[in-house]
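Exercise: predict the fold of this chain.
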Amino acid sequence: MIGKLNHVAIAVPDLAAATAMYRDILGAKVSAPGDEPDHGVTVVFVELPNAKIELLHPLGDNSPIAPFLERNPSGGVHHVCYEVGDILAARDRLKAAGARVLGGGEPKTGAHGKPVLFLHPKDFCGTLIELEQA
């Protein structure tokens, strides 16, 4: 069902510093910051030959990233995103198998302009999973 790895998301306390580290120290191509109000984050994408790294920073007081950074003040891996061919079919299959789909189970538009869903980390070895329709 899942396809290729799309990105690994890392929550960061200082987006400018993290962007500079990936760009200037690691030599990666990075995007400009983009606000995603529906998800409560500002994102920067680090382009790799086979996937992306998504740097996440809280956008506003109600950001879901803020509590994560309170527990992990230095930042850390927040979620892993896999591509799926049909997000609704994937959702239905996962729910039928007992997996919990977060946010009521209806896809939202993600940072790439495509439908996304998140799966409860307790169902996947402690890892928050994002599915993005390819």
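Check your answer against the key: The helical segments are 15-25, 65-71, 87-96.
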